[in-house]
Amino acid sequence: MADDKSKRDNRDRLNVAGSEEYEVRYLAEKTGISGAEAQDLVKRFGNDRELLLHQAQSLKMSGKR
User: Fold this and answer.
1) Does residue 33 or residue 2 have the better pLDDT?
2) Is the pTM value of this prediction over 0.85?
């Protein structure tokens, strides 16, 4: 059965589905890190999108890649 399109909110947008390749790839492309680094961040910090973006930017800036 299809999703109920009348029930929309942004709860899913606050999380990154680490098991979904396209979500991890988007995180990597958005922040300029590799897919492996993005997957590692999801494993280490969970699926909170804001935290992952912050950690990815910190990783990129630190040069510890």
Assistant:
1) 33
2) no
Q: Extract the tokens encoding 62.
A: 């630190």
Cα(65)–Cα(37) distance, integer angstroms: 8
Contacts of 13 (CB under 8 A, 6+ apart): 49
Q: How distant is the alpha carbon of residue 7 from its chain centre?
A: 23
Query: Which parts of 1-65 fold into alpha helices (H)?
Result: 21-31, 35-45, 49-62
Q: What is the pLDDT of residue 13?
A: 67
CA–CA distances in Å: residue 12 to residues 2, 48, 65: 17, 10, 29
